[in-house]
Structures are given as C-alpha cells and as structure tokens.
Amino acid sequence: MGAHTGLPAMQTNPKFIFFTDFDGTITLQDSNDYMTDNIGYGQAKRRQGNLDTLEGRISFRDSFKGMMDSINKPYNECIQYLVDNIKLDPHFTPFFHWCLENNIPVVVLSSGMEPIIQALLAALVGPDAEKLQVIGNNVGARPGKSIDEEGGWELVFHDDSDFGHDKSLTIRPYRELPEDIRPTMFYAGDGVSDLSAAKETDLLFAKKGHDLISYCVRENIPFTVFESWDSILAKTKEIVAGTTSVKEAAREGFEAYKAGDAGLKPVANGAAK
C-alpha cells in the first residue's frame, strides 16, 4: 500500500473519488431533522439552530447534540421509524452503480450516526450498500441504561472538533497525496454539517436552495449546483470524459446564484436568502 496506508478509497488506485454527505443529500429528507421535527423538540427550534450555526453563533456540535438529546424514543424504534419514512433520491443508485463500474469509490461522510445510516442504506440501496465506506458519528448507552429503552441512548461524536465530525479530517490525507497519484475529488452536500468539507475537494456539488450555497456565496467558495443525483451523474460523466473541466464546473454555481437559478434569492451584500 505504501503511501496509501490508511486510505481505504485508494486501494484500487482510482483516478476519481466521490465524497458525499448522507442526510438530505443521498436521502430526500434529513433523517436527523426528521426525528427532531417529529419526535424531538420540533422544527422551529431545530431550524433556528441551523441558522445560528450558519452565522457562527453556535457550533454545529452543540446544535446537533441538542437536537439528538431532545429525542427519547428507544434507538431501535428510531431506526425503524426512519426506515419507514425516509426516502432515497431515486437517482443515487444509478449514480452509485456507474461509479462501481468505473472504479470511482464513493465515501459517505455524515454527522449522522453510523448504525442509522447503514440501516437506511441497506434498506434503500440493497446489498451493494456494503461497498460504500461510511464514516459518521456513533451512538452509546446512557449510564445504567440500554440504547433500546426510553431515553437510553446518546450521540457519541467522531472527534473533538466543533463539528463533532470534522469531515475535512477524512478528505485531507487524500488531498495531500503526491500529485502523480492523487485522484480528482468531488464532494456533494446540502447544509451546515458540510461546512468543514466545503473547501477540501476539487469540485463541490451544493444542493439547490439549501444552506451550503449560502455559505459558499458568503465565503467565496467555488461550487456547482445540483438538484438530484441525476444532475451529479451527468456532470461527473462530463468531467471523467474530459468534456468539462473541474474549474469550469466550479464556476457555474456562483453564476447560477447571480442569475437566481440556485434556489436562493440573490442579495446585494452576497449573502443568500
């Protein structure tokens, strides 16, 4: 393995790697938001936490911990609740199969909990879900309790960062590989949990109408807009085929924003609404 030691996505010497968020990106709904809104402290408080995180008034770690602490349903019931209610972007599976056929590893980086993500992927993608590397937060039992009893579980963060799971920590070792073996890297995301990954890859796909676009516009981070994995697949195919460059694609997002085509209203000071 040599320089590839500790980098699972490099085992097949790929020329491209696709990193992606899970909730609200691969899925149509954010499973953590869905639980918080319906069996936690509710949509209004959750949305205010998202806005406070985007504006730097609170860390994502603290906001997300508050969300998860507001959910008392036993963990096994939470998983079943989400399997019953969360739907996959229907275009993700064709995208993933194309990546498998073209030696493009897909790595899921999530602030959600790995057991929930793996259960959802198994239910929504099928047996091929085992070929996805998943890195996220985890879950543990509260003292003296089982995770499968009322109020028995709590979030266990991936690392000590203000994000709880700093996604850049996974991406950066790939970015720092020698130029002759370093693959072109993509990232797809939609919200505040993706801020740590936004600057780390060669091309960022930001979901139309969502908070990640607001952040990219404010911080002048190049991106391209996506609405579904169908549009991601089309753009990725163009880049792999060499008919579009990463730099060309990365200019498209701000142009779409200025034209009013990014799902957010452009405003004079550059902040998106």
TrEMBL record:
Record's keyword terms, sorted: Hydrolase
Signal peptide: none
Recorded GO MF terms: phosphatase activity
InterPro entries the record matches: HAD-like_hydrolase_phosphatase, HAD-like_sf, HAD_hydro_PyrdxlP_Pase-like, HAD_sf
Protein name (database record): 2-hydroxy-3-keto-5-methylthiopentenyl-1-phosphate phosphatase
Organism: Lepidopterella palustris CBS 459.81
